[in-house]
Fold this protein.
Amino acid sequence: MFFNEKIETMDRGDLDALIEERIRYTVKYASENSPFYKKWFKQQGINPSDVRTHEDLRELPLISGRTIREHQPPESTDFQFKSADWKEIFTLHETSGTSGTPKAFFFTWEDWGRYAEKYARNFVSQGFGPEDRVIVCASYGMNVGANTMTLAAHEVGMTIIPIGKCTFPSRVIMNYKPSAIVGSVFKLLGLARQMTNDNIPPHESSIQRLVVGGESFAEESRAYLSEIWGCEVYNTYGSTEGTMCGECTDMSGLHVPEDLVHLDIYDPQFKDFVPDGDCGRIVLTTLLPVGGKCGTLLLNYDTEDTTAVVTRNRCACGRTHMKILNPQRESETFWVAETPFNRVDVERGVFQRENMEYLTGEYEAFLYGGDDEGETIMRVSVECLNRETCDRQVVEENFLQAFFKYKPLLEEAHADGMFKIIFNFAAQKDLELYRIKGRPKRIVDRR
Ligand SMILES: [Zn+2]
């Protein structure tokens, strides 16, 4: 039921007290061991011992990915976020570097233990145990996720099949009879198509659970994935910075490991926290247990992701740690007619159930300025299972209905001709994203 029952089911009052104790210790550790924070506290004129509660964090400035890049080579002579001696550092890691230079992260062996524990709690909360054989599609190498997840599997007693990517021969499924796969929504859809072509229907395979993460998705795409695999699909929100939140079997939000990472949700101006239930920006602070050592720690780090707190009350699964909505990336939010929409809104339009009779689910969209002042054109390309037999009218109507559902201003702009949506029905493997290496960028703003 639990990996660490005492911590995972701790009463709110005790949990909050533990968090504040760890905030005080982490701030002290940062001010003594991180060259960046040593200087930062001095520059801000802040006495680290004055930071006593999570509200006090609100008075400190925020840092971002850019801050980290500006304080590591080649911008600076040393890694100023490295907060332990080299002899304490076990491994070093890099973020994927989708937005420029990768950020360096240093891990002590203790950090490995804490990251693994976060994953282990998620696995157990999703019903995993020693009988499970799990294919990990997340990449190994410099990435921390797959590596620490593998250590977590050891803690839970599971067997790992460390393939490290989602393209592998169907015989792996046939021969080893894995019970679960960790991967991304689109890679798992692709794998299902491959297996179907190989006459191994995914829902008849040995797979009993899928764990997805690495990007936000529409509930519709999860539902479709769940349908074709015939099993539950659990969401996780992991990052090099250490979020590792995961859905439990209650599937009503992602539990945050509150004793190991502190998340504050800020308003768009970064002036104050938003009330629970309101959407805002996720700002992260590492939490260290008293006496702990850490290779890289972050205080008030702007993740550039948005979410809302679902609840801080005890979950039906027994856990007391707060739950958040599936986070979305701020960089995937676009504004048209003074209305924001996210990539996930486009995805919802694509994955309407009836559309999936004709589409693979792969899509991409481009935003352009029109001929008239203030006019925007969005070109949505969808990949067809068969371009000839695809019912384009059905797909377009379903898309528009879903896309405009909660966006009356966008719908108005569409009706007025100020926001044009053009559909392109692509043959398989004919989207632009197939020609670009790395994580696909599904919405490109060319205005
Ligand atoms: Zn739960």
